[in-house]
Amino acid sequence: MIAPLRKAFGWLANQPYLLLSLSSLFWAGNIVLGRAVAGHIPPATLSCVRWAGALLLMLPVAWPHLRRDWRKLRAHWRLMVLLSATGFAVNNVLSYWGLQYTQALNALLLQSSGPLFVALWSLLLFGVRLTFTQALGIALSLLGVLTIILRGDFGALAQVEFNRGDLMIAGALFAFGLYSAIMPKRPATHPLSLVTVGTAGGALLLLPLAALEFAAGARPSADWITAASLAYVMIFPSVLAYLCFNRGVALIGPNRSAPFLHLMPVFGSVMAIVLLGEKPELFHLAGYAMVIAGVFIAARR
User: Fold this and answer.
1) Residues 6+ apart with CB under 8 A from 149
2) For residue 151, what are the CA distances in angstroms to 107, 222, 262?
3) Phi, psi torsion values for 300, nearest 5 degrees
4) pTM
5) Successive 10-residue mean pLDDT values, the chain, 301 residues
6) 104-111 and 263-276 are packed helices; what angle lies between their axes, rounded to 10 degrees?
7) How far is the C-alpha of 185 from the C-alpha of 280, rounded, in Å?
8) Which of 31, 77, 64, 20 is nearest to 200 (CA)?
9) Whole-angstrom Cα distance, residue 164 to residue 78?
10) CB neighbours of 37 closer than 8 A, spacing ≥ 6?
């Protein structure tokens, strides 16, 4: 039983397109959930408990690798703090904060700019420019995202109003773009070691904010919605999504990985059709086709 599982995981670990698609699927669910529990669970508390819980889940499995890799990780402690801050703490808490104030349409529109932030940081830090095919793929997938979100009516774009929540989500994307750009510079360690240290750093950095929320009287509701929400965010958009994303970036690089972020609105709209009973329309199919084509073009060598 163990040998087939090990073989399956070994195969999956070398499939960057599938890994990056899975990370976008899990993060799409996180956006839907973050909006659904706005006002039910305080954002900093949700972020802190998310990473603390993910740490507890991973630590027993990651411990042997962590002990072996600890010297390398400690030697790169500045980089690890930066990865924890941008990819785990700042990105996460700003997203949850932003979803307290903005609509899902605005959040999805802003999420579609994620690959541009990755490209910007890659250019500023390392002089890595987008190739023509990468730029073409990002533009095509972005057009597909807008087609889905605006339901084929691009005139609706002029009616979208932005607020402080949108600025927070833009800040989250700015931070995650930096995380994606510097990921290839990470120390050569086991993936579990890297994500475990990232979750620990994220939880520690968010602890003061969660304490301030608690002192101000903002407490999560003690019910099944809170329990189910915390279970989801600890496992899928935390442990699994980051393992998949980090491995995908390691295999094909940040600029080729970034267009997969455009799959998040695609998965979000599919969730709405399947879970909420929304009727699929022609613009869904057109948008899906453009996003998938754009991702395929941009991810090629």
Assistant:
1) 105, 108, 109, 112, 265, 269
2) 15, 37, 16
3) -70, 155
4) 0.86
5) 70 92 91 82 94 95 95 95 96 92 71 82 87 86 80 73 82 94 92 95 96 92 90 94 94 88 82 71 83 81 63
6) 150
7) 42
8) 77
9) 31
10) 46, 225, 226, 229
